[in-house]
Amino acid sequence: MKKVKVIGMIGLISIIWGYLWVSMKVGLQDIPPFFFTTLRLFIGALVLITVLIIRRKPILPKGNEWRRFFALGMLMCVGYYALCTYGIQFVDSGISSVLVYTMPIIVSILAHFFLNERLNWLKGFGLIVGAAGLTTIIGPKLLHLSWNLALFGEIVIVVSAFFWSSANVYTKKIGRDHDKIKMTLWQLIDGGIILLIISLLKEHHEIAHLSIHMPSMLALLYSSILGTAVAFVGWNWVLGNIEASIASISLMSVPILGLLFGSIQLHEAITRNVIIGALFVCLGILFTSLPKKKPLKG
After folding, report:
1. What is the pLDDT of residue 250?
2. Could you tell me if 84 and 153 are in contact, meaning their C-beta atoms sit under 8 angstroms apart?
3. Which residue numbers in the chain have pLDDT < 50?
4. Of 27, 80, 12, 13, nearest in space to 266 by CA
5. What is each CA distance from 101 to 94, 267, 281, 292, in whole angstroms?
6. Where are the alpha helices (DSSP H) in 28-120?
7. Measured in whole angstroms, how far is the alpha carbon of residue 34 from the centre of its chain?
8. Nearest-angstrom CA–CA distance, 175 and 166
9. Structure confidence at residue 275 (pLDDT)
10. C-alpha dihedral over 61, 75, 94, 147, to 10 degrees?
C-alpha cells in the first residue's frame, strides 16, 4: 500500500512541477520576478502555518533551528527560487525546466565532497552525459557568440540549479533532525523577508503601478500553493520513504512535461537541439542517480 502511495505522490509532484514553469511564465507577465517570488513564498508559508496549526504542531524554531532554517532559506528561496524566476523572464518555460533539473547531476558532485557519497564510473558517465545535454542546449549561442538575454537567462537558471543542489545537500545533512513542514515553512518566511527587501529596493516602480489580471493571479496561486507548499512537503515525504537515488530518477519526467506544457499552452518551439539536450540531461540524471550495486556475499 505504501508503495502505491509513493508512486501516486511522485506522479502528482511530477505533474505539478512540470506545469509550474508555464504558471511562472504567465505570472511574470504582470508581476516583477522578485515580487512574484516574495508573494509565492509568503502565500506558501500561510498554507504551511495552517497545516501546523491544524496538526497542533509547534511553529517557532528552537535552538540551532533558527540558524539552520535561515541558511536553507538563503540557498533555496533566494539562491534558487529568486534567481530561477528572474532567469525565466528571458527563457522559454520548457527550456527553463530542463536547465533547472540538472540539479540531481550537480547534487552527485556536491555529495561526493560533503556527504561522503563517492562518485563511481556510472555517476561519472552520467555527469558527462548531462554536461553534453547542457552544451547541446546552450552551445549554439556560444558557438555563434550570440550573447543575448536568452543566454543570460539560461546561465542564471543553471546557477539557480546549483543553489537548489546545495540546499538539497544541506537538507540531507541536517534534515532528519527537524520537522519537514516546519523546516520548509521557515525557509519560505526567511527567504520571503529578504526578497521583499530586495524587491522593494529594485522593483518599487513596478510594484507601485502593479495591475494583476486573472491569469497572473491564478498562476501565482498555483505556484504558491501547489508548486511550493504542497509539492515540496510531498517531496520531503517521498524522500522519507524511499532512497534518495531512486527518488531522483523520478524527476526525469519533469523537464519533459515542462517542454510539453510550454509547447501546448505557450506555443513555445521545441527545436532539435532542445529535444536532444533534454534527453541527454534525463539520461544524465538516470546514470548519476542509480545506486551502486552491493557485492554479493559468499
Report:
1. 65
2. no
3. 295-298
4. 27
5. 11, 21, 8, 22
6. 33-54, 65-72, 83-87, 93-100, 103-114
7. 16
8. 13
9. 87
10. 160
Segment 119-135, tens digit of pLDDT: 778 778 878 888 888 77
280 SS3 class = helix
At residue 166, what is the residue type? Answer: S
The three cell numbers of residue 96 are 527553463
Residue 298: predicted pLDDT = 42
Instruction: Provide DSSP, 40-59.
Output: HHHHHHHHHHHHHHHTT---
Grid cell in block for residue 193: 523577508
Q: Is the dihedral of CA 162, 229, 267, 250 positive or negative?
A: positive
The terminus-to-terminus CA distance of the chain in angstroms comes to 34
The pTM of the full predicted model, rounded to 2 decimals, is: 0.86
Cα separation, 190 vs 187, whole angstroms: 5
Helix 93-100 vs helix 121-143: angle between axes, to the nearest 10 degrees? 150
What's the pLDDT score for residue 159? 95
Contact indicator for 69, 187 with CB cutoff of 8 Å: yes
Burial of 62 (0-12, 13-18, 19+ CB in 10 A): exposed
